[in-house]
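Could you help me review a protein record that somebody else here produced? My question to you is simply how this chain folds and whether the tokens agree. Thanks in advance; the entry in question is below:
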Amino acid sequence: MILFENVTKTYPRTTRPALDDVSLEIPRGEFAFVVGTSGSGKSTMMQLVMKEQDVSRGRILVAGRDLDRLPERKVPALRREIGCVFQDFRLLPNKTVFQNVAYALQVLGSSRARIRQTVPETLELVGLAGMEKRLPHQLSGGEQQRVAIARAFVNRPPVLLADEPTGNLDPDTSLGIVQLLDRINRTGTTVVMATHDTVTVNAMRKRVIRLDRGVLVSDMEAGDYTTGSIPRIRLDEEAEAPRRAAEPEVSDGYDDGDPTAYDQDGESEGLPPIGRDADAPRGKSGIFRRHKAVQTSDR
């Protein structure tokens, strides 16, 4: 799904590369943490996957596309297949929860019937059923981040990138957000999360890719934040996202609060069921192919 081959990224007027000869593979359906201190290259890696930056050397493939050869006119199509979650939520302050999530489908030209079906399904998945009419300022930080995750996932993208999504949250809320991302991963979506949240990474025991000053220093399956390189072993632990009790029925807040605004002619376009993607097999104990072995200890 995501392949880095000897990738180096050097920004103008700098001498040290932001990423230095990084090679790794993240298969379809993987959940991977990218960890490291500030300036280690985590955000640069995310920007390269989104093609917000270009490599200085090496090659990146995302969903079979060679990004170095991807024409500029095809970049929007690439980004439609990648959901993004950020530390600062980036919600529209004057739009309701429903409207914020629906917006991601509107820009893709989805029908009103599909929006009316898909948005409530997604809000239920992230534990926000019954909160459609609330505005962002009426939500806690954790709830706002759940709205941001719903917006990123509502189109069922094959890849979801999360750049420090728990940076503004307390530890308990942070763990709940990452467990939600884990639940989304179990629908078949590849999840890559950049973070320096030691407690959450150690609790989840997922794949951990560690960067230090742009260099890939360890890559572990079922790893933690600080341990050196160890053999990668598949781990299939089930994690359920918390469910919020439904509040009294309210308007979805969309189209001036008229919940019938999307009742148009034509059939509703359904979503794939919540559950494991049949086209995204995940072995119970198989070891994924490593593009480049990393044999190094802690720095």
Notes: The mean pLDDT is 81. The two ends are 29 Å apart (CA to CA). DSSP finds seven helices and ten strands in the chain. The longest strand covers residues 2-9.
